[in-house]
Amino acid sequence: MLILKYLLMGSGFGMILAAAGILTYDLCTKTLSRKASPPGAVVPPVLNDHWSIPLALVWLAWGPILVAVGLMLVPPAMTGLHRG
After folding, report:
1. CA dihedral 33, 34, 39, 42 (to 10 degrees)
2. What span, in angstroms and rounded, lies between the C-alpha atoms of 5 and 14?
3. What is the spatial distance between Cα 38 and Cα 66, in angstroms, rounded to a whole number?
4. Residue range 24-46: mean pLDDT, rounded
5. Contact by Cβ (8 Å): 50, 58
6. What is the pTM of this model?
7. How many whole angstroms separate alpha carbon 43 and alpha carbon 36?
């Protein structure tokens, strides 16, 4: 059960990191395209804005994180089932 909890937390935080990576990549591409243009030139807009994908990843990431936080691990000695 502990492995399931860590797997859910890892997948949730992995999706959030992937969303941040996509946004960082977009920001870097925009910055590099502006630096590559000559001074005074009109810079055409970069059309690779991926705002919908990171937003969806962040919204989907909360599901596994909330399930993982809701899991409670009870040690066997605390269950009240004693062999006697």
Report:
1. 90
2. 14
3. 49
4. 77
5. no
6. 0.72
7. 10
